[in-house]
Amino acid sequence: MTKSQINKNISLTIHSLGNSGEGIGDWHGYTVYVEGALPGEIIEAQLTEQHHSYGRARLNVIVTPSPSRVEPICPLFHECGGCQIMHLNYSDQLHFKQQQVVKALEKIGKITHIEVPACIPSPSSLGYRNKIQLPVQSEGSECRIGLYARNSHEIIDVDNCAVHCELGETIYKKVTFSI
For 66-134, where are the alpha helices, taking DSSP H only? Predict the structure, then answer.
């Protein structure tokens, strides 16, 4: 793609997910990454970045939703950067994570034709995260603690997180409410 197409509205069929859970489609042979899109979806998007071999687009409309699309339980899903694929049903999340291992072995390890077993599902699709990173910002004489907004280092206030394990959520609440 030679001429700038930034801000152009495009139609895409999403065929896979990228490393960060963004949908991947092809537009006239040009790879386009779209945050929030899922495989099997037909979408309308606006091209926001253009590079030599790929671009990024902002999702405008889901024309045909994926049967794997679910409503995220978290009201901050679209703002918070903690969960990229909460809009994907749990069994497909597990398959995506298995494929991430396969891709890493092939690309980084140069290991091919290896069988990676399926991910073992958690007894709960929520409350599984036991590693919690809490960024802290100083604002004058005050401290602010929360989670990073999606694709930024801006802190957003979060009352609770559905993926924190019970102990992690208890600690998170004690730390955030004591400041």
Answer: 90-107
